[in-house]
């Protein structure tokens, strides 16, 4: 069992759930600060990703602010707490550790398989798109508002779409020929680090506090 990946997913879920459905308090900053401390070498990368995502969040908050400014502020804070915590946890992730985590926490084998093959296909297409873009640059292509540029991009996306269909078929035939039966088996080599242990303890304390205030 991949204990590390499963614990990361559980920490992410419980923190997101607590922030989303509880009254906001300063104590909710504690898990975020713990995670940032352990990932302090990557603070610039983490906050760059947070700022990038916030371009979309700000638009949503602006729409809400027309109805209720207080709700808009709360929404902005909640969203950024959840995003910052999850970005800090997953900023080095390539996606496959998340798939292992889904398998470890007991998601159905078919769901895990769908996530795994979707991720594999996305990585293949992303790599192919980057190679195509580099090829265009090496040939002196410059994007503009001309018809030639639109035709070029149209051809590229059409080619990628065809490659996606072919790649998915090749993957299906490959797995069928190997006797695949809707289940992927993962190696269990990861160990739980100090960061995840401390985060789990802090989240348990937060959950206890929320439950105490809810029932007493």
Write a structural description:
- The protein has helices at residues 3-21, 29-38, 43-65, 69-90, 96-104, 109-138, 147-177, 194-215.
- The chain is mainly alpha-helical and 216 residues long.
Rg for CA atoms: 22 Å
Shape: globular
Structural class, from helix and strand content? mainly alpha
Sheet of most strands: none
Distance between the termini: 38 Å
- Approximately what portion of the residues adopt beta-strand conformation? under 5%
Secondary-structure element pattern, one letter each: HHHHHHHH
Low-confidence stretches: none
Count the helices. How many?
8
Number of strands: 0
Percent helix, as a range, is over 70%
Summarize model confidence as the mean pLDDT.
Answer: 82
What does this entry show, briefly?
The protein is an all-alpha fold and 216 residues long. Helix content is 77%, strand content 0%.
Question: What are the main properties of this structure?
Answer:
mainly alpha; 216 residues; 8 helices
Describe the secondary-structure layout.
Layout lengths: L2 H19 L7 H10 L4 H23 L3 H22 L5 H9 L4 H30 L8 H31 L16 H22 L1
């Amino acid at each position: 069992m991949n204990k590390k990946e499963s614990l990361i997913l559980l920490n992410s879920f419980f923190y997101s759930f607590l922030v989303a459905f509880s009254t906001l308090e300063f104590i909710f900053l504690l898990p975020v600060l713990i995670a940032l401390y352990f990932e302090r070498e990557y603070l610039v990368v983490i906050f760059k990703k947070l700022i990038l995502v916030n371009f979309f969040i700000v638009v949503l908050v602006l729409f809400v602010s027309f109805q209720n400014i207080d709700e808009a502020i709360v929404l902005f804070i909640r969203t950024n707490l959840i995003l910052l915590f999850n970005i800090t946890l997953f900023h080095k992730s390539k996606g496959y550790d998340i798939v292992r985590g889904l398998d470890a926490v007991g998601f159905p084998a078919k769901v895990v398989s769908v996530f795994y093959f979707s991720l594999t296909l996305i990585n293949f297409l992303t790599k192919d798109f980057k190679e195509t873009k580099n090829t265009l640059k090496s040939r002196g292509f410059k994007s503009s508002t001309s018809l030639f540029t639109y035709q070029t991009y149209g051809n590229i996306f059409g080619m990628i779409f065809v490659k996606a269909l072919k790649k998915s078929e090749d993957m299906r035939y490959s797995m069928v020929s190997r006797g695949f039966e809707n289940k992927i088996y993962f190696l269990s080599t990861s160990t739980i680090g100090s960061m995840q242990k401390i985060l789990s303890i802090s989240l348990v304390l937060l959950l206890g506090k929320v439950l105490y205030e809810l029932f007493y």
